[in-house]
Design brief:
Layout lengths: L1 E5 L3 H13 L3 E5 L2 H8 L6 E5 L7 H10 L6 E5 L4 H10 L3 E4 L4 H15 L8 E3 L2 E4 L4 E4 L2 E4 L2 H12 L5 E2 H9 L7 H17 L5 E5 L3 E5 L5
Parallel strand pairs: 1-2, 1-3, 3-4, 4-5
Antiparallel strand pairs: 6-7, 7-8, 8-9, 10-12, 11-12
């Protein structure tokens, strides 16, 4: 899972980042409200851990602006403000859960697992299926009518993004952020190269699925209309 941690407590960031990575998650850190909002609205993460009291823009405003921009990424607010009113305000603004500092890491992981069960999207190593293919992210193995093959890490991540939103048009910048990272210095042509690789992999396993180019926007994984 890709997690964005927006928190200005450097010690807490370091601790949580280490623990989450040890659990197998990818973690990106941000210590500022405005910068956090810029990353949030890229819609490149599976989960946001959001502090309420941040420099330049408080967490509630970050959350409100992201929700108004149409970003529905699950959010767990982590804050020292634990009064009933504070929790209600956070949840009403759009948070999916609210965790009061100090907290045990085990409780945070339980909250993350609970959100995953609700969404059905974050099960570890779940097999993803669409049309005539299935993909095991843990093994990075793609299965189709003509057999199976192993994908590279980048190919696998790109395919996983498409399989989690089949039939949706995914913008180029969203794909670049989700696969390479929001701050990665990567040429857009790299995306086109990996799209080419994925098309070849789909063909190799005998799939009828197509990765369609939506000119000027991005790409879509779809079942072709043969009628």
């Amino acid at each position: 899972m890709r997690i964005l941690l927006i928190e200005d407590d450097m010690n807490l960031c370091d601790t949580l980042s280490f623990q989450l990575k040890r659990e197998g998650h990818e973690v990106e850190l941000c210590h500022d409200g405005r910068d956090g909002l810029d990353l949030f609205i890229q819609d490149a993460y599976d989960l946001i851990l959001l502090d309420r009291m941040l420099p330049t823009m408080n967490g509630l405003l970050v959350l409100k602006k992201a929700r108004n921009a149409g970003v529905h990424t699950p959010v767990i607010m982590i804050t020292a403000l634990g009064e009933l009113y504070d929790r209600i305000e956070g949840l009403d603004t759009g948070a999916d859960d609210y965790l009061t500092k100090p907290f045990a890491f085990e409780e945070l992981m339980a909250r993350i697992r609970s959100l995953g069960r609700r969404s059905g999207k974050w099960e570890t190593h779940e097999t993803l299926s669409y049309g005539d293919i299935s993909y095991d992210p843990g093994m990075r193995e793609l299965f189709g009518p003509a057999g199976s093959l192993l994908l590279s890490g980048r190919e696998g991540r790109l395919l996983e993004v498409f399989l989690r939103e089949p039939d949706a048009v995914l913008r180029r910048m969203v794909l670049l952020s989700r696969v390479w990272g929001a701050d990665a210095a990567v040429e857009e042509s790299n995306l086109d190269t990996y799209i080419h690789f994925l098309r070849k992999r789909l063909h190799t396993v005998g799939s009828i699925l197509t990765l369609s180019t939506i000119r000027g926007v991005g790409y879509r994984l779809e079942i072709p209309d043969v009628s």
